[in-house]
Amino acid sequence: MDEKKFCYKYPHPAVTTDCVIFGFDGTRLQVLLVQRGIEPYKGRWAFPGGFLKMDESCEQGALRELQEETGLTGAYIEQFHAFSDPNRDPRERVITIAYYALVKIQQVQGGDDADRADWFALDEVPPLAFDHDMILREALKRLRERIHFEPVGFELLPEKFTMKQLQNLYEAILDVRFDRRNFTKKMLHFNILTQLDETTRPTPKREAFLYSFNQESYNELKQKGFRLEF
Amino acid sequence: MDEKKFCYKYPHPAVTTDCVIFGFDGTRLQVLLVQRGIEPYKGRWAFPGGFLKMDESCEQGALRELQEETGLTGAYIEQFHAFSDPNRDPRERVITIAYYALVKIQQVQGGDDADRADWFALDEVPPLAFDHDMILREALKRLRERIHFEPVGFELLPEKFTMKQLQNLYEAILDVRFDRRNFTKKMLHFNILTQLDETTRPTPKREAFLYSFNQESYNELKQKGFRLEF
DNA sequence: ACTTTGCAGTGTAAAAATTACACAAAATAG
DNA sequence: CTATTTTGTGTAATTTTTACACTGCAAAGT
After folding, report:
1. Which of B11, B13, B54 is closest, CB to CB, to A86?
2. Who has greater pLDDT, A204 or A222?
3. A-interface mutation test, from B16, B55, B84, most A Cβ less than 10 A away
4. What is the pLDDT at residue A228?
5. What's phi and psi for A165, nearest 5 deg?
6. Which of B3, B9, B84 is nearest residue A4 as measured by Cβ atoms?
7. Nearest-CA distance B206 → chain A (Å)
8. A174 to chain B, closest Cα gap in Å
9. Which end of chain B has the smaller Cβ count within 10 Å, N or C?
10. Over residues A119-140, mean pLDDT
11. Is B159 helix (H, G, I), strand (E, B) or coil?
12. Are A17 and A99 in contact (CB under 8 A)?
């Protein structure tokens, strides 16, 4: 049955949420893509997403989709743009509210769901469905801006991480290189890291200190109007 | 007639655009509000906005509303957030895509339209309709972040302005005070200002140099990967 | 057990940016 | 002509950023 029973006096667009899921493998930024099983763009890769329910906010919708696609709950998400070109979906007028999620990549199993899902390094992302190439570009742009004001990067790292991993992450996000010593100095200067007693044993080479993000110190800092300059 | 002739298989929310219009009077940031003539929230002030047409993007819709409400065309606008609480509009489910516009206040006539429209200084904004108080807070937050990366402030000033006005503007947006000499030094250092031959005659006190924003220099700077640190 | 290899930890000196700070010149009002 | 207000301007002290090289640890190979 193709019964159309939801009627309005004026035309309404459909509204979806899409979620650019960023992960970090220790060296490179990755995004989680799902392969479309149906037309349009059947077989193409795209960001997970879906139609918004009438009793949920966009944020709730994005979190629900995230849960459905990856099993993740309570991930860090942030809305970054609504894409609304009248022809962005060939089926009907669809506006999508786009979010990005920052997840700990180890917590997400790639590709053994019903839909094929897989992680792609940023420079190996294939051509995407709909306007998702543009969505990815914008997501990256916003993440890059965001990281200057908030220490969102830690969402992408495991609880315990080495200074090297942290540096790799910043370099990957901002696409720059830092001097190792200056990076360490600067990071420690913020006073938002706790140096743990543990190290990275076993390791093939010299062991490294592990750190964890100190949310409390950061909250204090933020209250003092501090700005994370990176 | 209350004929509902636009029908869909699944429920669709209504979509509007709202526009927070910022202006600058030389001292304080202002926003343009319109007083609602109909329920709900009849008599309350709100940001101009309206329903999105099916053949326009959100940006086009926001620009159209801006034109309809203020007569302004080609203003600087930027989308900053979609507000989607299921109960934000008592009539039906309405999602609004919110923009802010930066306009030269002299170019906009306040309040002699059909709708009453008026400028309000930021600290004199009355309680607003719908969730527009939240929309204003978010708009400000985004403008404040934005001004660290792009010289958007010039959109709020006349073509020719004094260093004092520019400083007032930055102070108003960021809610901080700068040292007059250091501010001048820093601004001139960016090399995006052209010092004009003219001054502010007549003036009650000593005349001041006029400057204009130099878009070309800025473009060059941006190409070199420069970041406007303010 | 000794050597090699690779990565981790660490400090200092130079350069650049930021801050703090004061006086003289222009214009008007009285 | 005096008082008042606002503008233009420079320098020294401090802080931040940058550039840069050696030693220690652990495992693997000999």
Report:
1. B54
2. A222
3. B84
4. 77
5. -60, -45
6. B9
7. 37
8. 12
9. N
10. 98
11. coil
12. yes
Q: What is the pLDDT of residue A176?
A: 94
List of protein residues whose beta carbon is under 7 A from strand C = A 162-164, 180-182, 184-185, 205-209; B 179-182, 185-186, 189, 199, 201-207, 229
Count up the domains in chain B and report the number: 2
Q: How far is the CA of A194 from the C1' of D25 (A)?
A: 23
Provide the b/e sequence for B116-150 (b: ≥16 CB within 10 Å). Answer: ebebbeeeeeeebbbbbeebbebbbebbeebbbee
| Cβ–Cβ below 8 Å for A15 and B11 | no
**A191 CA: distance to closest CA in chain B (Å):** 22
Segments of chain B scoring below 70 in pLDDT: 1-2, 110-115
Output the six-digit token pair for B149. Answer: 């990366």
Distance CA B137, CA A78 (A): 17
A123, burial (CB in 10 Å: exposed 0-12, middle 13-18, buried 19+)? exposed
Q: How far apart are CA A223 and CA B33, in angstroms?
A: 32
Torsion of CA A221, A222, A225, A229, to 10 degrees: 80
| CB contacts, 8 Å: B3 with chain A | 9
**Residue B52: CATH number of its domain:** 3.90.79.10
A1 or B229: which leads in pLDDT: B229
Same structural domain, A86 and A167:
no
Q: Are B175 and B191 in contact (CB under 8 A)?
A: no
Q: Are residues B93 and B182 in the same domain?
A: no
Same domain for A72 and A175?
Answer: no
Give the CA-to-C1' distance from A178 to C5 in angstroms.
Answer: 24
Reported as a pLDDT band with limits 50, 70 and 90, residue A108 is confident
Whether residue B178 sits in one domain with residue B128: no
- State the average pLDDT over residues A193-205: 84
My answer on whether A69 and A124 are in the same domain is yes
Tokens 């901080």 — which residue?
Answer: B176
Q: What is the domain range of residue A181?
A: 157-223
